[in-house]
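Holo prediction — magnesium ion.
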Amino acid sequence: MKILLDKESLHQGVADMARQIEAAYEGRQLTIVGVLTGSVVLMADLIRLIQLPMRVGVIQASSYRGATTERGDLLINSELMIDISGRDVLLVDDIFDTGHTLTRVIEKMREFKPHSIRSAVLLKKKGRAEVDYVPGFSAFDIPDEFVVGYGLDYEDMYRNLPYLAALEPSDLEKHAALP
Ligand code: IMP
Ligand code: MG
């Protein structure tokens, strides 16, 4: 795999984003909601770097796997989410690609009447956005390549890699051959 961002670069980018978030919410309480499953690694690092009083929760968003559903259908499960009504909410996700996932999740969360809602992502893919929305905070802009590691998966694997890597055709062959 071709490493795009090593452990140290990731840490630096996330720490810089944490400082920006602290500045934006200075003197306030924050409610941070991570989008499962891609945000878990970023969440673990980010919440420990932000020096503000905060509540932490999760929401689940995943592509439909049903046989009859169209590709791109999104399943959003907010049943396990903490109370966000009247709160200043920061939604955290791994990557902003076309932007459909994040905008749909935000739409869903607005139903619970937060005081404000902004978003923070580890990565933004250049030239891919299909929605009229930009995440409030992002650590890195990356080229249009399929990446894994630091929470991001390919077929639910590689989330545990401590670096961010681009999957190349030879990696896909190796993946397909895994026992
Ligand atoms: P969007 O709805 O197009 O913005 O896609 C967002 C979701 O697609 C992310 O939350 C990821 O789960 C997945 N995704 C998009 N690009 C990548 C990638 O390069 N690697 C791994 N997952 C990705
Ligand atoms: Mg994913």
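READOUT: Residues 2-177 form a domain with the Rossmann fold fold (CATH 3.40.50.2020).
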